[in-house]
Amino acid sequence: MAHKNMMEELNQCTYEQLAEKVDGWRRELFGLRLSAASSHVKDVSQYRKLRRSIARGLTLMEQKKTAAILSMISDMLLKTAEQEEQV
Prior knowledge:
mainly alpha; rod-shaped
């Protein structure tokens, strides 16, 4: 259930917010790796959870970027079509 809630929350984030979250997860993963090198990590499943969160965030960022590009292209095509109709 947590995965579904997380995806709903991430879907509502802007590209910039997603980038901040991914950066935070990367920093957290780095910290976890540092603590693992110096001492024992209590919850080793955190590695997997963080890597998957990072992947989900990056996937959504790419989807939002692609959607924005497609939107710009369709707007340009519509403007071009309107200009051709006027001529």
